[in-house]
Amino acid sequence: MIRRTLIDHIRKMVEKFPIISLTGPRQSGKTTVLKEYFKDYKYFNMERLDYRTLFLSDPVGFLNTQGSKVIFDEAQRVPELFSYLQVISDERGWQYILSGSQSFLMNEHISQSLAGRVNVNHLLPFDVTELDEKTTEDCRKLIVTGFYPRIYDKNIAPEDFYPSYLQTYIERDVRTLKNIENLHSFSKFLSLCAGRTGQVLNLTSLANDAGITVNTAKSWLSVLEASYIIYLLQPYYQNFNKRLIKSPKLYFYDTGVVCSLLKISNPETLYTHYLYGSLFENLVISELRKRLFHSGKHPSMYYWRESNGTEIDCLLELDNRLAIIEIKGGQTFSKDFLKNLNTFPSSSEKTGKIEKYLIYQGDFSTQTGECNVLCWNDFKRNFLRK
């Protein structure tokens, strides 16, 4: 089994908090991790009706008989559980781990009943540093394959895995979160989002193309965020000037999902695909986001774009420094790649030290002026491991 980076952080937090929460998309490996690394805990999957019935029939009696270390998987299925755990963890100091695939419901119950008692963690599909030798040097294949554990554990072809994964997700999680009746319209909406990956979100355009209202589009985006399908990268507009646009950019947590929605199954076709640059950008930014989450950190990530179109793909706040990152899918280095980096201020009293990086698809890394030029392989082997 491939070891998950997040385990080290969770083991430290178990010593400091009575309750640990672990959220992430379906099939990201949460259950496998908990069963493998916390074998001294009793395990209950609350999607099972019999477990829910046992608990609801006598909550106090049920918890009293399970001992001091218990895992409740898909805990959001039993909202009443959270209030009882608050009392027991306070009175007895017993340890609980709560996991779930719907962050909105989990966070809602935690904020209502367990605030201050819980350490919150997120397990996403594999990041590239966890896969190591299992990954290919061919970035195109990695983009199409994606990072869901079952693909690697069972050697499943992406074109076999993702359609069934998305169908199950839409039929189960989507109905649970928002009780959406028109699943065909939602599926169309999801595919339209895939076609906008790496782009500044235009809600009106997206809603019009999907044939829904802007408010419905907002609601459906929140569903996709809550179930770890997409995330919205917010603009960095607190410093430098006030000419920056304030709409977020849309990304997917897994590029394999995007490729499946776009009907891309052959890596060889990617270089000529009109969205290849956006897919490579999505890959890099998702890897940064996953790596931070898997280290127990909550990403402070943004993008920067002026009204005249000058843009930096990613701004990453790290301790007392700011890493600004430009991402290019090209294989041949060009000084034009550095144009936007060079226009960005070199220092700021508010952000501290500023480091400039270019991540591209070429074969070599170098330093030119203030900019660190990193090829993909050096990015994944060195930058992501800092």
Kindly describe this structure.
The protein has 2 domains: 6-122, P-loop containing nucleotide triphosphate hydrolases (Rossmann fold), CATH 3.40.50; 128-385, no CATH class. The protein has 17 helices and 14 strands. The chain has helices spanning 6-14, 30-37, 49-57, 59-64, 80-92, 103-113, 128-131, 139-145, 149-153, 158-178, 183-194, 203-210, 214-226, 255-261, 276-294, 339-343, 376-381; strands at residues 19-23, 42-45, 69-73, 95-100, 118-122, 230-235, 249-252, 301-305, 311-318, 321-327, 347-348, 352-360, 366-368, 371-375. Strands 6, 7, 8, 9, 10, 11, 12, 13 and 14 form a 9-stranded mixed beta sheet that branches. β9 and β10 (321-327) form a beta hairpin.
In short:
This protein has 386 residues and is of the alpha/beta class. It has helices at residues 6-14, 30-37, 49-57, 59-64, 80-92, 103-113, 128-131, 139-145, 149-153, 158-178, 183-194, 203-210, 214-226, 255-261, 276-294, 339-343, 376-381; strands at 19-23, 42-45, 69-73, 95-100, 118-122, 230-235, 249-252, 301-305, 311-318, 321-327, 347-348, 352-360, 366-368, 371-375. Helix 12 (203-210) crosses helix 13 (214-226).
